[in-house]
Amino acid sequence: MRQVSKLTFVAACALAASQAFAQPQRDVDFDAVEVSVHSISGNIYYLEGSGGNIGLSIGEDGIVMVDAQFAPLTEKVVAAIRTMSDAPIRFLINTHVHDDHTGGNENFGAMGTTILARANVRVRMMQGIRGSTPWPTIALPVITFTDAVSLHLNGEDIHVIPVPPAHTDGDSYVYFTGSDVLHMGDVFRTNGYPGIDGENGGTLQGTLDALQIAIDLAGPNTKILSGHGVVSTREDVRAFRDMILEVMERVSRLVEEGKTLEEVIAANPTADLDAQWGPRLDRFMPALYDGLSARP
User: Which of residues 278 and 133 earns the better pLDDT score?
Assistant: First the structure.
């Protein structure tokens, strides 16, 4: 590993984490993106494109969306929905603030779709994140909440459940009770280590607490939709949580020895896990190190 100063290395880690969460639109070739439809259970589907998975409830009462991906994909998203239903898109629920989940809000808001999110999401959108301009007024949630709220549409109860500060401080789960489908947003992913965005309120302990909420809420047959990745089970979430605990134990020993972040990464404590869980440096290890270092 090239020798750099501790300060430079830590700054580089922080920059890499910020860039990873920002997912700037200029880095995506939207013309090449294909939005595909996947069935989960009953009348619940998800759309895969670029950015977070979009959840859909489609029925006689209309369409409920969970997240909206980037703004330039809205036309493709709507076209994918129209292959299944011409019903109005009545509600859009944001699981958190990142623009790969909220970028399309402006377009759906202009269509008359009612946008819901936690109060923290609206606040951060109004302020802008990482130096970006604030979201336009039409893109902001018009209904915000701090406690769980429920929608009663398409023959089932849809519970929107705030969780502790995990990926961000505005995370929510969306549980379609009749279909037994749980959309976890970016608290859970199947294509890499957890993303903990400390700049926007995410925390290590909150991630563990939020994952435990999902484990307790889900049953053996619950279909779980990750923010990024594929449909999973309660046991997949449990394995994800257990992986975090295992890495925490390994890194905590290094922290107790007084190792810097640079030295922890150089020790490569996740070498045997990286093939399954993906890159360790850009988002997970700095947040893990900070979380452990802050513990008494």
Answer: 133
